[in-house]
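Tokens in:
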């Protein structure tokens, strides 16, 4: 920079700014920031919901609290169902522990509570029903979100067999059926095991169904 003799301060040079404006790394960085900010939702992968398998069996039974309940009472939101019986012992305890994790996940989801119900069909006599009443109390089960249902053993076993046929699974004994996902229109959408990975899969697919339009 040189003094022109006028006493006025020299004009600032724009050479540096022009050099930066011609820098391809600057524009690449700005483009990346804009893409991450505004384009992420456009490119985010949203998995397809599980396909419809068949209508779930209808039923008219009784909750362990003594109230009448039918399949239509669960319409409007998806639910996950399973069966327990007198002969499963530790196997049923493992299933119930998995269902408890699902209940906690649906209540405390990252995006808020999810409207997914849980249904446990209790196969057995009054002593079996009483066992699960006590379990519900000990685990502080919310009956508005998790319903334990009982009824004639023959009807419950028939339901389990019908569901097992839809998912090419076993229902002998009934608790081997695992978990069944039913959508808001009463249609079976998925069958799952009871290990950690299967429970996680059931959770995410139930979450997807909870967002489907009625």
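Residues out:
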């Amino acid at each position: 920079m040189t003094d022109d003799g006028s006493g006025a301060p020299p004009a600032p040079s724009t050479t540096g700014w022009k050099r930066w404006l011609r820098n391809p790394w600057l524009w690449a960085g700005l483009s990346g920031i804009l893409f991450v900010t505004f384009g992420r939702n456009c490119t985010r992968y949203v998995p397809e919901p599980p396909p419809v398998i068949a209508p779930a069996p209808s039923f008219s039974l009784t909750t362990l609290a003594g109230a009448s309940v039918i399949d239509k009472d669960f319409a409007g939101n998806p639910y996950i169902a399973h069966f327990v019986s007198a002969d499963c012992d530790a196997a049923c305890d493992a299933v119930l522990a998995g269902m408890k994790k699902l209940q906690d996940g649906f209540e405390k989801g990252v995006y808020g509570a999810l409207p997914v119900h849980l249904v446990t069909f209790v196969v057995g006599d009054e002593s079996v029903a009483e066992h699960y009443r006590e379990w519900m109390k000990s685990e502080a089960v919310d009956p508005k979100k998790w319903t334990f249902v009982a009824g004639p053993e023959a009807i419950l076993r028939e339901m389990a067999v019908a569901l097992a046929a839809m998912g090419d699974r076993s229902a002998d004994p009934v608790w081997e059926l695992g978990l069944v996902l039913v959508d808001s229109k009463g249609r079976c959408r998925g069958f799952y095991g009871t290990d950690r990975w299967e429970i996680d899969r059931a959770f995410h697919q139930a979450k997807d169904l909870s967002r489907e339009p009625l």
